[in-house]
Amino acid sequence: MTELERLIQAKIPGPETGIEVRHGICDICAPGAHCGLDAYVKDGRIIKIEGTEGFPGSNGKLCTKGAANREYIYREDRLKTPMKRVGERGEGRFEAISWDEAYETVADRLNRIKAESGPDAVMFYTGYSKWLRPWLHRLAYSFGTLNYATESSSCFRATQMAWSTVTGDNYGPDTPHCNTFLGWGCNGYMSAYQLARGIEAAKARGAKIIIVDPRLTHTARKVADIHLQLHPGTDGALALGMCRLIVENGWYDKEFVGQHVHGFDGFKELASHYTLEKTEEITGVPAEKIYEAARIYATNGPAATYSPSATITHHINGYNNMRAVIALQAICGNLDRPGGMRPLHPTYIYTDCGFDMPEHEFIHSRRPKDGHNCVGGERFPVWNALVDEAQAMDLPRQIEEGKPYPIRALLAFGMNHRMFPEPEKMLRAIDKLDFVMATDLFDTEVVRHADIVLPVCSSLERSELKAYPGGFLTCTEPVIDPLYESRNDCEVICGLAKALGLDDELLCAGYEETMNWFVRDLGVTLKQLRKAPLPIKVQSAHPPVFGQRRQEGFPTRTGKVELYSELIAGIAAEKGRSDLNPLPDYRSSQDVSPVDGANATLVIGSRLPNAIHSRFHGVSWARSLRPAPAVDMSPSDARNLGVEEGGKVRLTTASGSSVVVSAHITGTSNPGEMYLYHGYAEADGNSLIPASHLDPYSGFPGYRQIACRVERIGD
Ligand SMILES: Nc1nc2c(c(=O)[nH]1)N[C@H]1C(S)=C(S)[C@@H](COP(=O)(O)OP(=O)(O)OC[C@H]3O[C@@H](n4cnc5c(=O)[nH]c(N)nc54)[C@H](O)[C@@H]3O)O[C@H]1N2
Ligand SMILES: Nc1nc2c(c(=O)[nH]1)N[C@H]1C(S)=C(S)[C@@H](COP(=O)(O)OP(=O)(O)OC[C@H]3O[C@@H](n4cnc5c(=O)[nH]c(N)nc54)[C@H](O)[C@@H]3O)O[C@H]1N2
Ligand SMILES: [Mo]
C-alpha cells in the first residue's frame, strides 16, 4: 500500500496530509433521492468518493454510478471554454471566446429571431439534469414562450399523466406500512438502490411481495413471493385480467368504489373481456399465478404499488396500460390509504419534501398569457392538457415542416439526441435551425452541431439547493472549483436573462439572489444551510397526510377517481380524435412497425448498474463492467441463431437501420425477447426505433417493444 493509499483509507485524514473531506451530493441520477457523498480533496482535486453517513435516504451508501463520480467529472472530453463555431455544423471546429462575447452573441441572435418571428420560434430544452429546471422554465416564460421542454418528454411524465387523469394527483407507495407490495416493472437493484432497500425492509416485516417483470431480475429472485413474468407491453391486459377476477370474486372495495369511483360499470364491462384464459394467452403468465396474485393483492391489503417512471409507459400503449394498473389500485381501495398509496405534493424539483417551496410561483408568475400552443400540443392534446411543457418528441417534425409555426432556434442544456427515436432525424433537424446554443459538461454530438457552446460544471463544482422527503433541505457548497472556465447552468441562465435585457428583476439579479428568494420564508438562511454538515429539518415540515382526498373529493372533473376519464372524453369529442378512449382499453402493440423476418421482440433500455444513458459509456471504470454493447438473449435463442457468448449479431427493424452488437446469453428473459441498452454511439439502439412509434396520448416512444430481425454475422 502506498503512503497516499494509506492516507486515503483513514476516514479523517490528519492536517499534515493536505487532504480535506468535503460534503457534496451525487446528482448523476433522478431527483428526490440524491445521495450524500464525501469527497476527499487534495490540491484542489478529488482523489476519492465515499457515501456520507447519516445523510437522509442514502445514509452512507452509494451505487456504482455514484462511486464513479470522480471518473465521471474528470472525463477527458470535458468542455473547457465558451466557443463559437467556425466550421460546418457537426465538423467540430470551434474557436474559444470569452463568456461576455458568448452571452452577447446568444442574446443578439435570440432577440433578432424574436423580433422577426416572435418568441415561440425559440425552443428552450434541458436533458436529464433536473436541478436547473425551474430556472430554465422561468427563462423561457420571461422570454415570452411556452416552448420549454425536457427529457421528461420520455421519462416519468406519462406515468404522472396517467395518475392525474385517473385521480387528479400523482401517488407514491407507503411501503413502510403495507401488507402487500406490488412492484410493477420494478428492479431497484439496477436503477434505484434505495427503493430496493425499502422492499427488503417490507419483506423482512412479513409483507407479501409481487413483482411484475418480463425478466427474472435480481428483485424477482431476491424478494418476490410471486413473479408475474409477462410479455413486454402487455401490462394493461394483465391489470384488466386481475381486475375482472377481483370484481367477479367480490374482493374489491365496494364502499370506496360506491363513494369515490366514476365509471365503474363501463370499466367492469371492459375488464370482463379479460378472462383468465385470454389474459394468460396475451401476457404469457400462467393462469394460476394471475389468480394467486390477484387474490393476494386484493385480500391482503393495504397494498402499496411502485409505479415506474419509465418501463410501463415506454410502449405505444403505455399510458393506457398505466391507467389500468392504477384502476386496479383504485377498485381495491388502496388510494389515499395508509399502507397503500399516498397523494404526493411535490413543491421543489419533483420532490415531495413535506414543506412548501415557492417553485410554482417562481415559474408560473412569469407564464406568458398569449403564447402559441407549444411544440407537440396539437399532435398530443392529452399531453397538452396535463403537462406544462412542450412534447419534445414532436420537435424534429415541427422543425422540418414548420407547422403549425416555424422553430428557428434552440437553447439546449445537456441535450442528448440519442434519447430520441431515430436520433439522426433530430440531428438533421438541428442543422436546419438558424441558431443553436448548447451547454454541456462534455464534448457531445449535439455540442458539435451548435453555434455557441458553453462549458458547465458538475454538482461537485457548484452550490445548489436540494430538498429531501421528510422535511430536509440543504444548500451544497462546491467541493472543488469549477473545472477550466466552466460555470453552473443557473448562473448561465441568469447571465443570459441579463444579456437578453429581460424584464425579470429576479433572474437578472443573479443565481445567489434566486436561491435566497427560494428560502426566504423557511426560517433558515443559505449561510446556515451551507454550514450544516447534513441537510437541516425545516421547521414548517409536516408528516405525510392521508384521508384528505377521501374527505374532500379527488381533484378531477367529477371529484371522483375516474376509471372513465371525462377529460379524455372531452378532448376526443372536441378534437374529433376517435383513437383516444376515455376507458383504459388494452391494445396490442405487437404488430405495429413490423419488419421482414422478425424473430424477436427487442426491449431497449432496461437499466444496467454501470450505465446511465449516454454518460457512462465513456467512463472506463464503469465501462469495464460491460465493455462492449451487448444484447441479452436466452440460451434457446442463442442456439437457434447458432451464436455463442460474445458472438456478433445484427439487429434490424422497421426504421431501416441496423446495429451490430455482441450476444450476451442469460437465463433471465423469455425466448424471443431480447434486451439492449441505449445511448452507445457505436451501436445506437434508438436508431432502431421508428420516429413515428409514439403513444398517441403521451407522445412517449415505444422503446420497449420493437419487432426485430436478429442475425448472426461472421464467425
Ligand atoms: N431506448 C431507450 N431510450 C431512452 C430510455 C430507455 O429506457 N430506452 N429512457 C429514456 C429516459 S427514462 C430518459 S430519462 C432519457 C435520458 O435522456 P438524456 O437526458 O438525454 O440522457 P443523457 O445521456 O444522460 O444526456 C444528458 C446530457 O446532459 C449532460 N449533462 C449532465 N449533467 C449536466 C448538467 O449539470 N448541466 C448540463 N447542461 N448538462 C449536463 C450530459 O453530459 C449529457 O450530454 O432517455 C430516454 N431514452
Ligand atoms: N443504473 C442506472 N440507474 C438508473 C438509470 C440508468 O440509466 N442506469 N436511469 C434512471 C432513469 S432516467 C429512470 S427513468 C429510472 C428507470 O427505472 P426503472 O423503471 O426501474 O428501470 P428499468 O430497468 O428500465 O425497468 C425496470 C424493470 O422493468 C422491466 N420491464 C421492461 N419492460 C417492461 C414491461 O413492458 N412491463 C413491465 N411490467 N416491466 C418491464 C425490466 O425488465 C426492468 O427489470 O432509472 C434511473 N436509474
Ligand atoms: Mo428517466
Automatic annotation (TrEMBL):
Keyword Ribosomal protein: no
A Pfam family the protein falls into: Molybdop_Fe4S4
InterPro entries for the chain: Asp_de-COase-like_dom_sf, MoPterin_dinucl-bd_dom, Mopterin_OxRdtase, Mopterin_OxRdtase_4Fe-4S_dom, Prok_Mopterin_Oxidored
Domain (4Fe-4S Mo/W bis-MGD-type) ranges: 19-77
SUPFAM superfamilies to which the protein is assigned, alphabetical: ADC-like, Formate dehydrogenase/DMSO reductase, domains 1-3
Sorted UniProt keywords: Iron, Iron-sulfur, Metal-binding
Family: Belongs to the prokaryotic molybdopterin-containing oxidoreductase family.
Entry protein name: Molybdopterin-dependent oxidoreductase
Organism: Enterocloster hominis (ex Hitch et al. 2024)
Lineage start: Bacteria, Bacillati, Bacillota, Clostridia, Lachnospirales
